Amino acid sequence: MRWINQSLFRRLLISYLFIFIIGFGLIGVMIATSSQDYITEAKRQEMLQQATSINAAIMDFNKVTPEVENVLQQIGQFTGLNIWLFNDEGEIVATASRQDVFVGEPISDDIINEVLQGKNRIEVMRIEEEERPMLSVIVPWGTNEKIHGGIVLHSPISGINTTVANIREIVLWGIISGLVIVSILVSYLSWTISKPLKKLDEAANEIALGNYSKRVNLHESFPDEISALVSSFNRMAEKIDKIENERDLLEQRRQDFIANISHELRTPLTAMKGFLEALQDGLVKDPESQKKYFEIMHRETEYLNHLVNDLMDLIKLEKQEISLDLYYVHLDEVLKKVSLNLEPTMKERGNKFVLEIPDDSPAIIGDSIRLEEIFKNIIHNANKFTENGTITTKMKYESESVTVQIKDTGIGIPSYDLKRIWERFFKVDRVRSKKGRGTGLGLAIVKELVKLHHGDINVESELGKGTTFTIRFPTHMQQLKDS
Hints:
The chain is α+β, with helices and mostly antiparallel strands. It has helices at 2-5, 8-58, 66-79, 109-116, 157-208, 224-280, 287-318, 331-348, 368-384, 429-434, 442-452, 476-482; strands at residues 82-87, 92-95, 121-125, 134-142, 147-156, 327-329, 352-356, 364-366, 390-397, 401-408, 456-462, 466-474.
């Protein structure tokens, strides 16, 4: 039975066919039995009426006459029945057949007694001269006042059995035809259920093997419940595929992070190790050279410290573990402070800083220290990659926001690198090789800080012509609504 349980199609098909066979088998048996009872009873009633008609024709005769025999023969030929006529002593005195083989034969006493009492009798008789059992109907011959004997009508049971057998054959063929039709319908029904389930099983196995893009195509022939199941499965597969892609992306970022942090740490640590070994081995004895070595190691230490601080800040920002110290802040004051701090560095690179601030700029709700960090990072990058150019910071007020635009005339960023500048440790290769070092975390921190202030930031750049960062902050009323 295991081969049945392993296939839903076979289980459904066999179950439906079993139910059909049992159900229609019982119905067939009931029809055949009921038909036999009905036909037998109808035959009895018919013979009883015929016997009554014969009695009506001969009831005025108290003995057998040629006229009585003629009536019996005519009715016998017309109905095909065997007819006996017996007297009150139980002796057969006439038959419907011209061969009087039964004339003079006796009738059983119990039949005679019932008939003489005016009762009818119906029974199945076995007559020695007849090989077939006979259905017999016996009625009194005469009137209620005077009973002369009895009339017996015989009809072979085989005729009734043949009729019943024909009905049974018709019922059987009906069941067989129904079985074929039901088999086809059930096969189709089972197929419409088992086929999509098999496809779901195949798709689930492929997903289990790592093919997360596998989907099951919906078909209009699927039942509604199966279609809903397929839709749910596809949604689940899409979710798994998305999660897996995100996991792969996170894994790639993790690997990139490890590679980047290893690179960023290895360079200063290697330099510091070399200088320390030279000093320890006494290879550098000149005080000026020693001082220079110490300055380099101090600078590398400061770089490592800055790298670790930036990395910790970024991690806290991404985990939303940093809370802002919010109060009303005027961005013009923040921008003036940042420009004043970076002014010496700008002069070293021959850059001109232009600050355009409207007279009635509104305040926003923010953290002045974090806002200063945002603008310092962007303006510092603009200064680092611009030489003998102009850095313009323009502030503009709109109905529900304050926009700050920082534009430089530097070397610009390639279009294929624009989307990646917000990634941790990402540095444009040509910038890394030609310009001053940085941690590669500044813009990632800037993006998280802008998001924390309910703002947005975007960048436009053209290689060789410069870069423009645009930052939008909601005004304090709108920001309170967003919060």
